[in-house]
Request: fold
Amino acid sequence: MLIINLIGLVLNLVGTIIVSLSAGSLMTRVHTALVAHQTTLEAYLGGERNIPLFTGLDKGREEEVRRSGTRLRVGLWLIVLGFILQALAAAAPLLAKS
Reply:
């Protein structure tokens, strides 16, 4: 049962790493879009003649949302599977006594 518990721990670790990296890359992309929007808005409201124009941010953000969603689902399923394996490993001695 120790091996099942260790496999569960490894799956939890890998799932957590995947979720955190995926969320981090998505937040970086969203932050970039927000900074570009803020810069444009400040220039427009400040009455500047040359308003900066940022292009391609929507396409990059859409792609990152799609990729991030897939990675998040894989990471969450690994975490759930790891939890189930750990629960089975913990319950095995109790079931054996019955």
